Amino acid sequence: MVKGIILAFLAFAVFAWGDAVVKAIGHGLDPFEVTFFGYLIPLLLSPAFMRSGDRLSDLVRWKSPWLMGLRVFFISVTTPLSVMAFTRLPFAEAFALLFLMPSLVTVLSIFILKETVRWRRGLAVCAAFIGVLIIVRPGFREVLPGHVIAIAAALCSAGGVIMGRMIGTSEKRYTLIGSVFLGTAAIAGVLMIPGFTWPGLHQWGLLIAFAATSFVAQALFVVATTYAPADRLGAAQYSQILWALLIGALFFDEWPDALALLGIVIVVGAGLFIFARERTLKKPPSQAIPIPVPQPEPTAAKTATR
């Protein structure tokens, strides 16, 4: 159990540094281009997640085609939106808005899964939205496109989690992981064409680093789930906000003000509470994204598909 928890924390640390690489790329490359190359290499390496009896064709052989299609679409859209958010907002602020996802999952589960949400989780959802208002402060400072993009990414990620819950454990681990790599690379590959520019040598280095962190972090989390149940590891994702604060301060000279820190604490605290309540209620926890790779959900295998 302890080894699994340590590996999970390490996986989410790698995810956070991968997101820092995305921020370092900045506006030099089209976000869809960054997403394409960031997922192409993991796609080529995805057979490493295959088990005995798995086939490459399992990438597109789905037992629940409509639900899987929607899941892949939502997660595939989440990634370029997250890339845009990281290049437009302070690192920790973007993370905090993306961590709104568990609260959005709770809201969507009422209407789509017909779940009953009791007052404790309801208050946590309200607190999360208050935290977002404190971070963004509409009317008191300019609301940037990055704020809207980050919230849109959190909403799409929540949609992916809802689809994952509806799919359950019917799909293979390789299918869940590989299909996201494939779908994201395919969608980003098409959308990057209008704004494509050939990366320079330095940009190639950053793109390869992003792709490597995406694959290594996913692999670490899959290994972690062999030592501990996936629903015991999800809370480790919130350690990313600490990495975001540290990386933002040391490498991007970003120092959140007191109100932003308060909002971050409220959003993260609400997400942790919702996670704990869902574990108590024996529901698959809604996990946020190690961004921009959509984050795993405890189905047959965690799919770190930030």
In short:
With 306 residues, the protein is an all-alpha fold. The chain has helices at residues 2-25, 31-45, 65-88, 91-98, 101-111, 119-136, 145-167, 173-191, 201-224, 230-233, 240-252, 258-280. The protein has one domain (2-280).
Task: Report on the architecture of this protein.
The chain is mostly helical. It has one domain. Helices cover 67% and strands 0% of the residues. It has helices spanning 2-25, 31-45, 65-88, 91-98, 101-111, 119-136, 145-167, 173-191, 201-224, 230-233, 240-252, 258-280.
Distance between the termini: 24 Å
Order of helices and strands: HHHHHHHHHHHH
Beta-strand fraction estimate: under 5%
| Structural class estimated from helices and strands | mainly alpha
Number of discrete helical segments: 12
Give the domain tally: 1
User: Major sheet, described briefly?
Assistant: none
Helix content: 55-70%
Low-confidence sequence ranges: 285-305
Number of strands: 0
The whole-number mean of residue pLDDT values reads 86
What's the overall geometry?
A: globular
Radius of gyration (CA) equals 18 Å
